[in-house]
């Protein structure tokens, strides 16, 4: 068992493939944070070297979470559920997954774009991988009507940024209801505008299971490295 304050947690999860990612999420919340969140950064301390220094970064994480119980026990308990493990994906891969979800959601409009400016904008926001995936996604079953409504895509969004917000909302719904301490960590991440949407969508409702199965399907199809995390 692991003692955290007055709470003892069974450590049978330590051998799981996602255990290391969970511990990094708990111990180093500033690793991927959006620098726009930090106000009054001192001019004498260059940001990039500071972020690269693990000691400075962890002190910064303490400052960012100064009003929060660190909540390790709550995060570890929540991590027993496959859905919550989406929160422990490497940030770059998680954003890529949101982009893939956005491409799947908006496949009909993306495939139908003929004007070069629209294509360039979609590739810039969603990335080449997600844009290419849209042509495959057009052949996949569409998200359920309930899921489309829950992510704000009942009326197909017009632009790639709106689509990306839909993908972020699907990502958050897939996680379900997560501890506040984990939501706070999500809101620190870069880009903050996307992670805020994902964090705000973390709840249990009728569309949550649909979102989880949809995101897991995308993981298995395009990100097989992580697929066993969610079984």
Oligomer: single chain
N-to-C CA distance? 24 Å
> What is the approximate shape?
globular
- Helicity, as a percent range: 55-70%
User: How much is the radius of gyration in Å?
Assistant: 18 Å
Order of helices and strands: EEHHHHHHHHHHHHH
Structural class: mainly alpha
The strand order across the widest sheet is 1-2
Question: Average pLDDT value?
Answer: 83
Number of helices: 13
Please tally the β strands and state the result.
2
What's the story with the biggest beta sheet? 2 strands, antiparallel
Low-confidence stretches: none
Q: Hey, roughly how much beta strand do the residues contain?
A: under 5%
Q: What does the model show?
A:
The chain has 13 helices and two strands; from the N terminus they run ββααααααααααααα. The radius of gyration is 18 Å and the shape is globular. The protein is an all-alpha fold. It has a two-stranded antiparallel ribbon with strand order 1-2. It starts with a strand and ends in a 9-residue tail after the last helix. β1 (2-4) and β2 (7-9) form a beta hairpin. The model has no long low-confidence stretch (mean pLDDT 83). 56% of the residues lie in helices and 3% in strands. α5 (91-105) packs across α10, α7 (116-126) crosses α8 (128-137) and α11 runs antiparallel to α12.
List the helices and strands and how they pair.
Blueprint: E1 2-4, E2 7-9, H1 19-27, H2 47-52, H3 54-64, H4 72-78, H5 91-105, H6 107-111, H7 116-126, H8 128-137, H9 145-150, H10 160-175, H11 180-188, H12 192-200, H13 208-222
Antiparallel strand pairs: 1-2
